[in-house]
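ENTRY TYPE: paired fold submission
RECORD: A
CONTENT: sequence, then structure tokens
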Amino acid sequence: MASVRKTLLSLNAALFVAVAAMSVPVSGYVHAASEIKFVVNGVPVTDYDIQRRAAFLKLQRKKGNLTQLAGDEMVDQTLKRAETARLGIKVPDDAVNAAYARFAKSNKMTTAQLNGVLDKAGVTAPHFKEYIRTQLGWNQALSSRYKAQGGTMSEQDVVRRMLEKGGNKPSATEYMLQQVIFVVPASERGSIGKRKKEAEAMRQRFTGCDSTREFAKGLIDVTVRDLGRVLAPELPTEWAEQIKATKIGGATPVRETDRGVEFIGICRTREVSDDRVAKSVFQAEGSEEDQAGELDKKYTAELRERAKIVQR
């Protein structure tokens, strides 16, 4: 669901065109005792949460009653967090931090500079990171809903529309991937440094997917998964850049996830051009953006309709 994945990217123009030129006064928002403004299915939303979101909206140059808009957004965010948790979707800290770092880099800032801008504006880095975490999780929820509905266009429909517009059927790189997970239970996260060294040692020995399971023999709590064929536009967001930068027979850098420590091996690649590729590329370029936006609104409205929301 590519158009939804672009949510954070769409903030660049609106948010940091303003940041680049602005001199933000110190906001004066202090994290003192907070007053509960909403209770959403038993989860409180405080005035401090709303103040930070209002500051975020102001930084984006949004118009209207920002406090009211911020309250609505924080209610929606609370509902989305609960829904992604219900679906078992977890967004690890390193995925959030990586997105935050990319956002800073795309706006020619270091993360420290971005921290300073957000703090000075009254948004704060933790608030923005929680926004990112919610968006990443919600994107996965929307993608699942979209796939469950079978999408709205068949592969043949996509190809027909592309050809009608004078385009040729596109090609894309297809990856054969293998995932290696050094499992670290939540109760043993203190030992993750040791597991990271073990994973790095195995990654350095990695020369192809045929020998991975042999290497894994004798290692405790190591899972090897064949991920099958994955087109470039469909690569997991948190892994895509690393996978594309890794040569065939190599492995991505080791990274921490909610499961433990992982890397992905690149078994082989090939260029393919068929109806499936056309649909994947077509969607990745945001050609169904309107449909994605409608699904987002509909899904959120459903959550609101079922929720118990109390305003204080």
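RECORD: B
CONTENT: sequence, then structure tokens
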Amino acid sequence: MRYNSPVLVIHGGAGSWRNMERDRALKALRESLERGYGEFRAGSSLEAVVEAIASMEDSGIFNAGRGSVKNSEGGVEMDAGLMYGKTLSVGSVGSIRARNPIRRAYEVLKQGRHVLMVRTVWEDIEMGDNSRDGNTVGAVALDEQGNLSAGTSTGGIRGKLPGRVGDSPVPGAGFYATTRVAVSCTGIGELILRLLPAKEIDMLRAMGYPLDESVRAVMGKFTETFGRDNLGLIALDYQGYASASFNTGAMPRGIKWNGGEKVFFDEVDQL
């Protein structure tokens, strides 16, 4: 469906969500949309993505920021990545501990010297309840100047080995943004890193395929290759078309545009 810019799309992670309260997740999504969308007044799509994700990191509801799951040694290591489509600027962090990993990724992007920094930040933070089935968070945005941005943040896989880095801070895998499209993914990082669904959607869009068709094709290929219960994604293109898909039990998500707002939980292929 096509929306009037500026547009902000977010997700709270694809997964089973068996132990999660639906109402709390949707409330956190609405707060994220409000906080992120406010950035359009003075900032670009990049700032909208950062603030929307930071809001979800702060909530403690999702597997990101305060809600991050623990690794096999009982510690917390977080990953996040951010990309600005107009300049292909990227900032990513891996295996860090911070209240807002997406802000750390934003710092890397603004500095412009490197793309991915690992194990550079260890903040003391008050963690939330990470016993739920919350998952990776992400956002994509289109501002009134036509610029696209994408970002993703996660605490990784519960019980992972220390030092494990998933797809979330890797451009083309957990997130990607160009002048054509912005994508944020969620799911099993070890699989996403092998197929690079975010990059594949951009390639199909560059070949002239509509966004919905591109998303369905990539989701179909991923599911055919690796089975189900492993991927969800949101996508937004330069024309304001938005799309979402997942092959898991649910993927809380929402969209806010110049004219309205919607949130979803387990409704398949709706945005």
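NOTES ON RECORD B: The CA atoms of residues 108 and 260 lie 33 Å apart. The chain has a mean pLDDT of 95.
STATUS: closed
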